[in-house]
Amino acid sequence: MEEDFSLVSEDESSDNMQFIHDEIEKLKGRYNALLNDHKLLIEAKDNNIRFAQEFHQRAENRKKCLEADKISQAKDLQKEQERLADLKQEENKLKKELGIIQQELELMDETHQSLKQQTEVSTAVPEKKVVFQGETAEEGDALSFDVKPHIVYPMEGGTAFITFEEEDVAEKILALKDHVVQLGECSIKVRAEPVQFLVPSCVEMDTQVCPRRILVSNLPKKESVERVLDKLEIHFSKSKHGGGEVEESVMLEDSGNIIITFLDTNIAKGLTDKQVHEVEMERGKKFKVKVTPFLNGEITLLKTANITCSKTVRLTGIPPVMEKDNLQDLLEIHFQKSANSGGEVDAIVYNPMGERTFAVFQKDTSKTE
């Protein structure tokens, strides 16, 4: 092989070395730059990895929050649905209550009309003479009515009823129970017992105005019942007096008023609206009577209670040792004496053995109501 050796000058070699050195420096610069770029890339990569991890963590947290929100919304939706169901149930309940209230209002309206009719009747009742004696009552008492007690009590043989003027005397006699009564040379043993009754404590009535009947009051006292009935029937059977065909006329013995019943239902109202009617009892002589509605009543509630007479004592076990009047007088004398725990006697009745009688109990008028 042939080799060609060229001659190179020293200047050219120096230039080449410088060129090579410069190239090496450039390459070092580029290398350093590449090292910096590599470092930056590594830092960027680390940052991107960190950012990716943080993003992934945020995404996981957001996902959990969304799932929690979804569960919470589902629970809220269920609560709202339950609340809506409760509201619908409450609405149905209120509708039922409204229906019941409407029925009650209708019933109350009917009752109101009935009461209104009865209120109109209350201004047209049979007249009774009354007077104020200074007594007062609570408002609630004004809405009630009093029933006068009239109790017929059967007496057994060998018993007596004795009524004292003071209640405490009766209490003392009852507390002692057994009493020895001196009857001259002999004595008898009697027992004191309380007198009790079963009486009404509360009465409620449902009343309605009868469309075919009227109640006629303020009648003449001197005329016979038969004549008054005839005259009233004749008067109220005539259409010119506002009447009609009469079916029946009856006298109420306890009040002295008369009930007239018509065949038609449109007669009574017109007669009661006028109230005062002039009936001819004798030719050319008229008498004013009062016509009021007749009320049909039905007891809807009746309550009873046991009461004890506060002043009356029943004496039992009285043997027939002497005549009735004498024994009754001796009993009264015995129980009048304070030494025998007695007091003033208001009334006494004795029923001997083998006889039967009835004692009548009425309202105690000595008390201030």
TrEMBL record:
<dbReference type="InterPro" id="IPR009909">
    <property type="entry name" value="Nmi/IFP35_dom"/>
</dbReference>
<keyword id="KW-0963">Cytoplasm</keyword>
<keyword id="KW-0399">Innate immunity</keyword>
<dbReference type="GO" id="GO:0005737">
    <property type="term" value="C:cytoplasm"/>
</dbReference>
<feature type="coiled-coil region">
    <location>
        <begin position="17"/>
        <end position="104"/>
    </location>
</feature>
<keyword id="KW-0391">Immunity</keyword>
<feature type="domain" description="NID">
    <location>
        <begin position="259"/>
        <end position="346"/>
    </location>
</feature>
<keyword id="KW-0539">Nucleus</keyword>
<dbReference type="GO" id="GO:0045088">
    <property type="term" value="P:regulation of innate immune response"/>
</dbReference>
<protein>
    <recommendedName>
        <fullName>NID domain-containing protein</fullName>
    </recommendedName>
</protein>
<feature type="domain" description="NID">
    <location>
        <begin position="160"/>
        <end position="247"/>
    </location>
</feature>
<dbReference type="GO" id="GO:0005615">
    <property type="term" value="C:extracellular space"/>
</dbReference>
<dbReference type="InterPro" id="IPR012677">
    <property type="entry name" value="Nucleotide-bd_a/b_plait_sf"/>
</dbReference>
<dbReference type="GO" id="GO:0045087">
    <property type="term" value="P:innate immune response"/>
</dbReference>
<dbReference type="Pfam" id="PF07292">
    <property type="entry name" value="NID"/>
</dbReference>
<keyword id="KW-0175">Coiled coil</keyword>
<comment type="similarity">
    <text>Belongs to the NMI family.</text>
</comment>
<keyword id="KW-0964">Secreted</keyword>
<dbReference type="GO" id="GO:0005634">
    <property type="term" value="C:nucleus"/>
</dbReference>
